[in-house]
Amino acid sequence: MALKYIIGSVAASFAFAHVCSYYVVDKKIFGGTTPKTVATTEWWEATDKKFQAWPRTAGPPVVMNPIRRQNFIVKSSDEKI
Q1: What pLDDT digit, counting tens, does each position of 44-53 carry?
Q2: What is the CA 66 to chain-centroid distance, rounded?
């Protein structure tokens, strides 16, 4: 019996959130405009072209131990320590 109220309440809250999101974000009831960088793909293409032009250099691979929060440099087995 209580399950139908819980499921109904959750569904209604999702529907209410969707309606609020639609009017605030898409219809812009509080004003404002969508930035040009989001509205057009020209900016995305120029930014992607710029990032692809940068040379990519990397150091040795690093493994992070999240428990001790220490970084250790990974060395292959054939390298001498």
Answers
A1: 888 888 888 8
A2: 22
Contacts for 12 with CB less than 8 Å, ≥ 6 apart: none
- How many Å apart are CA 70 and CA 68, to the nearest integer? 5
pTM (two decimals): 0.47
DSSP 34: -
Instruction: Kindly report the three-state secondary structure assignment for every residue of 34-59.
Output: CCHHHHCCHHHHHHHHHHHHCCCCCC
Residue 44, φ and ψ in degrees, nearest 5: -60, -45
Query: Residue 33 belongs to what H/E stretch?
Result: none
State in Å, rounded, how far the first CA of the chain is from the last one: 68
